[in-house]
Design brief:
It is a single-pass type II membrane protein. The chain has five helices and ten strands. It has 329 residues and is α+β, with helices and mostly antiparallel strands. It has a domain of 122 residues: Roll (Mannose-Binding Protein A, Chain A), CATH 3.10.100.10. Bound molecules: calcium ion (CA).
């Protein structure tokens, strides 16, 4: 019966939430020996595979260990190299820092140099300006120099003209002197003409007045003084000749008298009396001081020997004499 029962399948169902499932109800499946065997084989196979894998891993590790160690060594070396490089880099960094300080100092120096360059530029600009001004000055000097050369070329001609001018100047001076002399002569002639028009005669630098009215010797002298003159003196043969010829044989007092009855003859106009030179002008036998009263001299004869001593109280014509003094122009 149990077997029949087992041959009728029971149907079971279950509700899970809204799902409905059908399944046959049977007791839990008994373990199949073949299945156990299969499981055991599977485990063995897995162990083998694991063992193989482990061995493979060990082998691989053994095989890779040297390479790995080598790699580590290389890595170490590289790390040391890197460390060295890092050290170098830090050294470089400090150097860079130092250099940066140097760069800053250099920057300051560069700024100073730039400032100096600006100064130098301004100096150069000033120098250029100065050079331009100097060029302008040089051009002016050059043109001036050309003008000077031009003048230099004219110097010989100027010299000749100057020589001509100086010779002309000398001639002008001569002419001026001549003109002055002529002017003096004209003035002199004018003075003489004026005196002549007043009755005076001119002879060798003196004016002579031959009176028309007889006077005593003293009165005659007073008259002459009143006309800025003196009774005439006689100092040369030509003057003596001029006087006796003008007298024309008439008696004329001259300015010769004695200092007292026993005194020496003297000229009343203070001309020194030369007794020896005058001796030739006396009439022979004169002066005889007749009656011891003849102390004045007169022209008596129309000849070189014409003088006579006579009494001063006699009234004779008389001759006044005035030196010609050119008046100021
Ligand atoms: Ca006499």
């Amino acid at each position: 019966m149990k077997a029949a029962e087992s041959e009728v399948p029971d149907v079971h169902f279950s509700v899970d939430k809204q799902n409905i499932a059908l399944w046959p109800r049977e007791p839990p499946p008994k373990t199949d020996p073949s299945l156990v065997l299969r499981k055991s084989l599977t485990v063995r196979a897995a162990v083998i595979i694991l063992t193989l894998g482990l061995a493979t891993t060990i082998l691989l590790q053994a095989a890779l260990y040297p390479w790995f160690m080598r790699t580590i060594s290389e890595v170490k070396t590289n790390a040391q190299l890197l460390k060295g490089r890092v050290d170098n880099i830090s050294t470089l960094g400090s150097e860079i820092k130092r250099n940066r300080g140097g760069m800053e100092a250099t920057g300051i120096q560069v700024q100073k140099v730039n400032a100096s360059l600006d100064h130098v530029r301004s100096q150069i600009w000033k120098l250029e300006t100065g050079v331009k001004e100097a060029n302008a000055q040089i051009q002016m000097l050059t043109s001036s120099w050309e003008a000077v050369n031009h003048l230099n070329a004219q110097i010989p001609e100027l010299k000749r003209n100057l020589d001509k001018a100086s010779s002309l100047n000398a001639k002008v001076r001569e002419l001026q002197t001549s003109l002055e002399n002529i002017s003096k002569l004209l003035k002199q002639q004018n003075d003489i003409l004026q005196m002549v028009s007043q009755g005076w005669k001119y002879f060798k630098g003196n004016f002579y007045y031959f009176s028309k009215v007889p006077k005593t010797w003293y009165s005659a002298q007073q008259f002459c003084v009143s006309r800025n003159s003196q009774l005439t003196s006689v100092t040369s043969e030509s003057e003596q000749e001029f006087l006796y010829k003008m007298a024309g044989g008439l008696f004329y007092w001259i300015g010769l008298t004695k200092a007292g009855s026993e005194g020496d003859w003297y000229w009343v106009d203070d001309t020194p009396f030369n007794k020896v030179q005058s001796a030739r002008f006396w009439i022979p036998g004169e002066p005889n001081n007749a009656g011891n009263n003849e102390h004045c001299a007169n022209i008596k004869m129309s000849s070189l020997q014409s003088w006579n001593d006579a009494s001063c109280d006699n009234k004779f014509l008389f001759i006044c004499k005035r030196p010609y003094i050119p008046s100021e122009p």
